[in-house]
Automatic annotation (TrEMBL):
Protein name from the UniProt record: Sugar ABC transporter permease
Phylogenetic classification of the source organism: Bacteria, Pseudomonadati, Pseudomonadota, Alphaproteobacteria, Hyphomicrobiales
GO terms classed as biological process: transmembrane transport
InterPro entries listed in its UniProt record: ABC_transporter_permease, MetI-like, MetI-like_sf
Compartment annotation: Cell membrane
Signal sequence annotation: none
Keyword Ribonucleoprotein assigned: no
Similarity comment: Belongs to the binding-protein-dependent transport system permease family.
Topology of this chain in the membrane: Multi-pass membrane protein
Length: 295
Protein backbone atom coordinates (compact mmCIF):
# COMPACT_ATOMS: atom_id res chain seq x y z
CA UNK A 1 0.00 0.00 0.00
CA UNK A 2 2.81 2.41 0.92
CA UNK A 3 4.67 1.62 -2.27
CA UNK A 4 1.53 2.32 -4.33
CA UNK A 5 1.07 5.69 -2.60
CA UNK A 6 4.67 6.60 -3.24
CA UNK A 7 4.25 5.65 -6.89
CA UNK A 8 1.13 7.83 -7.18
CA UNK A 9 2.90 10.74 -5.49
CA UNK A 10 5.85 10.39 -7.85
CA UNK A 11 3.57 10.36 -10.89
CA UNK A 12 1.67 13.44 -9.67
CA UNK A 13 4.94 15.25 -9.03
CA UNK A 14 6.12 14.30 -12.52
CA UNK A 15 2.93 15.44 -14.30
CA UNK A 16 3.83 19.17 -14.61
CA UNK A 17 7.20 18.30 -16.17
CA UNK A 18 5.51 15.78 -18.47
CA UNK A 19 2.89 18.35 -19.49
CA UNK A 20 5.55 20.95 -20.32
CA UNK A 21 7.54 18.37 -22.29
CA UNK A 22 4.43 17.33 -24.23
CA UNK A 23 3.59 20.94 -25.04
CA UNK A 24 7.11 21.94 -26.05
CA UNK A 25 8.20 18.71 -27.78
CA UNK A 26 5.37 16.30 -28.58
CA UNK A 27 2.75 18.81 -29.75
CA UNK A 28 5.01 20.53 -32.33
CA UNK A 29 5.97 17.14 -33.79
CA UNK A 30 2.35 15.98 -34.12
CA UNK A 31 1.32 19.36 -35.55
CA UNK A 32 4.12 19.17 -38.11
CA UNK A 33 2.98 15.69 -39.11
CA UNK A 34 -0.57 17.01 -39.55
CA UNK A 35 0.55 20.01 -41.60
CA UNK A 36 2.64 17.80 -43.89
CA UNK A 37 -0.54 16.04 -45.05
CA UNK A 38 -2.27 19.28 -46.09
CA UNK A 39 -1.82 21.88 -48.78
CA UNK A 40 -1.25 24.56 -46.15
CA UNK A 41 -0.85 27.95 -47.75
CA UNK A 42 -0.56 31.00 -45.47
CA UNK A 43 -2.36 33.21 -47.99
CA UNK A 44 -5.24 30.81 -48.66
CA UNK A 45 -8.16 30.12 -46.33
CA UNK A 46 -8.75 26.70 -47.90
CA UNK A 47 -6.23 24.12 -46.62
CA UNK A 48 -7.28 20.78 -48.13
CA UNK A 49 -6.03 17.37 -47.07
CA UNK A 50 -3.76 15.97 -49.82
CA UNK A 51 -2.29 12.90 -48.13
CA UNK A 52 1.25 12.06 -49.22
CA UNK A 53 1.34 14.41 -52.21
CA UNK A 54 3.85 16.74 -50.50
CA UNK A 55 6.23 13.83 -49.94
CA UNK A 56 5.88 12.65 -53.54
CA UNK A 57 6.70 16.14 -54.78
CA UNK A 58 9.70 16.37 -52.46
CA UNK A 59 11.65 13.64 -54.20
CA UNK A 60 11.14 15.30 -57.58
CA UNK A 61 12.24 18.70 -56.26
CA UNK A 62 15.81 19.43 -57.37
CA UNK A 63 16.32 22.09 -54.70
CA UNK A 64 15.26 19.71 -51.93
CA UNK A 65 17.47 16.91 -53.22
CA UNK A 66 20.47 19.25 -53.43
CA UNK A 67 19.78 20.44 -49.89
CA UNK A 68 19.48 16.85 -48.66
CA UNK A 69 22.80 15.84 -50.26
CA UNK A 70 24.62 18.94 -48.96
CA UNK A 71 23.24 18.54 -45.45
CA UNK A 72 24.17 14.85 -45.35
CA UNK A 73 27.73 15.57 -46.51
CA UNK A 74 28.09 18.31 -43.88
CA UNK A 75 26.61 16.19 -41.06
CA UNK A 76 28.77 13.13 -41.73
CA UNK A 77 31.81 15.31 -42.44
CA UNK A 78 31.46 17.02 -39.06
CA UNK A 79 31.02 13.63 -37.39
CA UNK A 80 34.14 12.23 -39.10
CA UNK A 81 36.21 15.23 -38.02
CA UNK A 82 34.84 15.79 -34.52
CA UNK A 83 34.92 12.29 -32.99
CA UNK A 84 38.61 11.42 -33.66
CA UNK A 85 39.80 14.94 -32.77
CA UNK A 86 37.68 15.11 -29.61
CA UNK A 87 38.80 11.76 -28.19
CA UNK A 88 42.46 12.53 -29.02
CA UNK A 89 42.40 16.01 -27.44
CA UNK A 90 40.52 14.70 -24.40
CA UNK A 91 43.10 11.94 -23.96
CA UNK A 92 45.96 14.46 -24.16
CA UNK A 93 44.32 16.81 -21.64
CA UNK A 94 43.51 13.91 -19.32
CA UNK A 95 47.09 12.66 -19.57
CA UNK A 96 48.27 16.12 -18.50
CA UNK A 97 45.65 16.44 -15.77
CA UNK A 98 48.32 16.95 -13.10
CA UNK A 99 49.57 20.01 -14.94
CA UNK A 100 48.58 23.38 -13.52
CA UNK A 101 47.59 24.43 -17.06
CA UNK A 102 44.97 21.68 -17.53
CA UNK A 103 42.14 24.08 -16.60
CA UNK A 104 43.37 26.52 -19.23
CA UNK A 105 43.42 23.77 -21.88
CA UNK A 106 39.86 22.71 -21.05
CA UNK A 107 38.60 26.30 -21.14
CA UNK A 108 40.39 27.09 -24.41
CA UNK A 109 38.89 24.04 -26.11
CA UNK A 110 35.36 24.70 -24.80
CA UNK A 111 35.17 28.44 -25.62
CA UNK A 112 34.17 27.91 -29.33
CA UNK A 113 31.10 25.96 -28.19
CA UNK A 114 29.71 28.93 -26.22
CA UNK A 115 30.65 31.65 -28.70
CA UNK A 116 27.62 33.17 -30.46
CA UNK A 117 27.06 31.44 -33.80
CA UNK A 118 26.69 34.43 -36.15
CA UNK A 119 29.74 36.41 -34.90
CA UNK A 120 31.81 33.21 -35.07
CA UNK A 121 30.62 32.57 -38.62
CA UNK A 122 31.48 36.16 -39.59
CA UNK A 123 34.99 35.71 -38.17
CA UNK A 124 35.47 32.51 -40.17
CA UNK A 125 34.09 34.24 -43.25
CA UNK A 126 36.92 36.75 -42.91
CA UNK A 127 39.44 33.91 -42.47
CA UNK A 128 38.21 32.25 -45.67
CA UNK A 129 37.95 35.50 -47.63
CA UNK A 130 39.56 35.01 -51.07
CA UNK A 131 41.30 38.43 -51.16
CA UNK A 132 41.83 39.59 -47.58
CA UNK A 133 41.61 36.35 -45.59
CA UNK A 134 44.64 35.16 -43.59
CA UNK A 135 44.19 31.57 -44.81
CA UNK A 136 44.94 32.46 -48.42
CA UNK A 137 47.77 34.75 -47.27
CA UNK A 138 49.30 31.79 -45.43
CA UNK A 139 48.88 29.52 -48.48
CA UNK A 140 50.50 32.07 -50.76
CA UNK A 141 53.42 32.40 -48.35
CA UNK A 142 54.11 28.69 -48.95
CA UNK A 143 53.65 29.02 -52.72
CA UNK A 144 50.10 27.64 -52.88
CA UNK A 145 47.72 29.70 -55.05
CA UNK A 146 44.81 31.46 -53.36
CA UNK A 147 41.57 29.48 -53.30
CA UNK A 148 38.01 30.81 -53.79
CA UNK A 149 36.89 29.21 -50.52
CA UNK A 150 33.46 30.82 -50.27
CA UNK A 151 32.69 31.04 -54.00
CA UNK A 152 33.09 27.40 -54.96
CA UNK A 153 30.32 24.92 -54.01
CA UNK A 154 32.73 22.14 -52.99
CA UNK A 155 35.12 24.39 -51.06
CA UNK A 156 32.17 26.11 -49.37
CA UNK A 157 30.94 22.77 -48.04
CA UNK A 158 34.45 22.12 -46.64
CA UNK A 159 34.42 25.56 -44.99
CA UNK A 160 31.05 24.83 -43.36
CA UNK A 161 32.35 21.47 -42.10
CA UNK A 162 35.42 23.20 -40.61
CA UNK A 163 33.27 25.82 -38.85
CA UNK A 164 30.76 23.28 -37.51
CA UNK A 165 33.54 20.95 -36.32
CA UNK A 166 35.30 23.86 -34.59
CA UNK A 167 32.09 24.66 -32.70
CA UNK A 168 31.17 21.06 -31.86
CA UNK A 169 34.64 20.06 -30.72
CA UNK A 170 34.59 21.75 -27.29
CA UNK A 171 31.42 20.01 -26.11
CA UNK A 172 32.63 16.64 -27.38
CA UNK A 173 35.99 17.04 -25.63
CA UNK A 174 34.25 17.94 -22.37
CA UNK A 175 32.07 14.82 -22.51
CA UNK A 176 35.05 12.61 -23.34
CA UNK A 177 37.00 14.13 -20.42
CA UNK A 178 34.21 13.09 -18.08
CA UNK A 179 34.40 9.62 -19.61
CA UNK A 180 38.18 9.39 -19.19
CA UNK A 181 37.95 10.41 -15.54
CA UNK A 182 35.40 7.65 -14.86
CA UNK A 183 37.50 4.82 -16.34
CA UNK A 184 38.82 2.28 -13.79
CA UNK A 185 42.54 2.79 -13.17
CA UNK A 186 43.02 -0.91 -12.37
CA UNK A 187 42.48 -1.91 -16.01
CA UNK A 188 45.22 0.43 -17.20
CA UNK A 189 47.57 -0.80 -14.52
CA UNK A 190 46.89 -4.41 -15.52
CA UNK A 191 47.49 -3.57 -19.20
CA UNK A 192 50.71 -1.80 -18.29
CA UNK A 193 51.91 -4.85 -16.34
CA UNK A 194 51.18 -6.97 -19.42
CA UNK A 195 53.55 -4.78 -21.42
CA UNK A 196 51.02 -2.58 -23.23
CA UNK A 197 52.36 0.84 -24.22
CA UNK A 198 50.51 4.13 -24.00
CA UNK A 199 49.04 3.94 -27.50
CA UNK A 200 48.02 0.30 -27.01
CA UNK A 201 46.30 1.14 -23.73
CA UNK A 202 44.49 4.00 -25.43
CA UNK A 203 43.41 1.87 -28.41
CA UNK A 204 42.52 -1.41 -26.68
CA UNK A 205 41.35 -0.19 -23.27
CA UNK A 206 40.17 3.43 -23.42
CA UNK A 207 38.31 3.41 -26.74
CA UNK A 208 36.26 0.21 -26.05
CA UNK A 209 35.30 1.47 -22.58
CA UNK A 210 34.27 4.84 -24.02
CA UNK A 211 31.77 3.35 -26.52
CA UNK A 212 28.70 4.69 -24.65
CA UNK A 213 30.28 8.17 -24.62
CA UNK A 214 31.10 7.84 -28.32
CA UNK A 215 27.49 6.87 -29.04
CA UNK A 216 26.15 9.91 -27.19
CA UNK A 217 28.62 12.33 -28.79
CA UNK A 218 28.05 10.90 -32.28
CA UNK A 219 24.25 11.14 -31.95
CA UNK A 220 24.39 14.74 -30.69
CA UNK A 221 26.94 15.73 -33.35
CA UNK A 222 24.98 14.11 -36.16
CA UNK A 223 21.72 15.75 -35.10
CA UNK A 224 23.46 19.11 -34.87
CA UNK A 225 25.00 18.56 -38.31
CA UNK A 226 21.64 17.84 -39.93
CA UNK A 227 20.23 21.02 -38.38
CA UNK A 228 22.97 23.23 -39.80
CA UNK A 229 21.62 26.58 -40.95
CA UNK A 230 23.36 29.76 -39.76
CA UNK A 231 26.78 28.50 -40.86
CA UNK A 232 25.59 28.00 -44.43
CA UNK A 233 23.53 31.20 -44.36
CA UNK A 234 26.51 33.35 -43.35
CA UNK A 235 29.36 31.59 -45.13
CA UNK A 236 27.91 30.26 -48.37
CA UNK A 237 26.68 33.36 -50.18
CA UNK A 238 26.48 33.27 -53.96
CA UNK A 239 28.36 35.59 -56.30
CA UNK A 240 25.56 38.19 -56.04
CA UNK A 241 25.79 38.17 -52.24
CA UNK A 242 22.53 36.31 -51.60
CA UNK A 243 23.00 34.48 -48.29
CA UNK A 244 22.96 30.70 -48.16
CA UNK A 245 22.36 30.15 -51.88
CA UNK A 246 25.69 28.59 -52.88
CA UNK A 247 25.30 25.68 -50.46
CA UNK A 248 21.65 24.92 -49.89
CA UNK A 249 20.79 23.02 -46.70
CA UNK A 250 17.56 21.47 -45.46
CA UNK A 251 16.69 24.01 -42.77
CA UNK A 252 17.25 26.88 -45.20
CA UNK A 253 15.04 25.14 -47.77
CA UNK A 254 12.30 24.70 -45.14
CA UNK A 255 12.44 28.36 -44.12
CA UNK A 256 12.28 29.56 -47.72
CA UNK A 257 9.31 27.34 -48.51
CA UNK A 258 7.52 28.47 -45.34
CA UNK A 259 8.09 32.22 -45.28
CA UNK A 260 9.07 33.12 -48.83
CA UNK A 261 6.92 30.74 -50.87
CA UNK A 262 4.19 30.42 -48.16
CA UNK A 263 4.09 26.63 -48.59
CA UNK A 264 3.89 25.66 -44.93
CA UNK A 265 2.57 22.14 -45.59
CA UNK A 266 5.38 21.43 -48.04
CA UNK A 267 7.99 22.74 -45.57
CA UNK A 268 6.42 20.56 -42.86
CA UNK A 269 6.91 17.50 -45.06
CA UNK A 270 10.61 18.42 -45.33
CA UNK A 271 10.77 18.63 -41.54
CA UNK A 272 9.19 15.17 -41.27
CA UNK A 273 11.79 13.74 -43.66
CA UNK A 274 14.57 15.36 -41.60
CA UNK A 275 13.08 13.90 -38.41
CA UNK A 276 12.87 10.44 -40.00
CA UNK A 277 16.50 10.59 -41.19
CA UNK A 278 17.79 11.60 -37.75
CA UNK A 279 15.64 8.95 -36.03
CA UNK A 280 16.82 6.16 -38.36
CA UNK A 281 20.48 7.14 -38.02
CA UNK A 282 20.15 7.26 -34.23
CA UNK A 283 18.58 3.80 -34.13
CA UNK A 284 21.36 2.47 -36.40
CA UNK A 285 24.00 3.91 -34.06
CA UNK A 286 22.33 2.31 -31.03
CA UNK A 287 22.13 -1.00 -32.91
CA UNK A 288 25.81 -0.91 -33.85
CA UNK A 289 26.81 -0.20 -30.26
CA UNK A 290 24.65 -3.06 -28.97
CA UNK A 291 26.17 -5.51 -31.49
CA UNK A 292 29.71 -4.44 -30.57
CA UNK A 293 28.84 -4.77 -26.91
CA UNK A 294 27.68 -8.38 -27.43
CA UNK A 295 30.79 -9.17 -29.46
Amino acid sequence: MLQRRLWRFAMLAFLPTLAIFAWVRIYPITETLRLSLHKWDILSKNKPFIGLDNFRELFHDRLFLDALVNTSIIAFGVLAVTIPLAITIAALIHHRTASRFSGFYETAVFIPHVVSLVPAAMAWKWIFDAKLGPLNALLQYFGVPAQPWLFDPVLSVICIIVLCSWQALGYAVLIYLVGFKSLPVSLFEAAKLDGAGGIQRFWYVSIPLLKPITLYVSVVTLISGFNVYAQAFVLASDSQGAPGRLVRVLVLDMLENSFRNYRVGYAASEAVVLLAIVLVLTLIQFGLLREKGRA
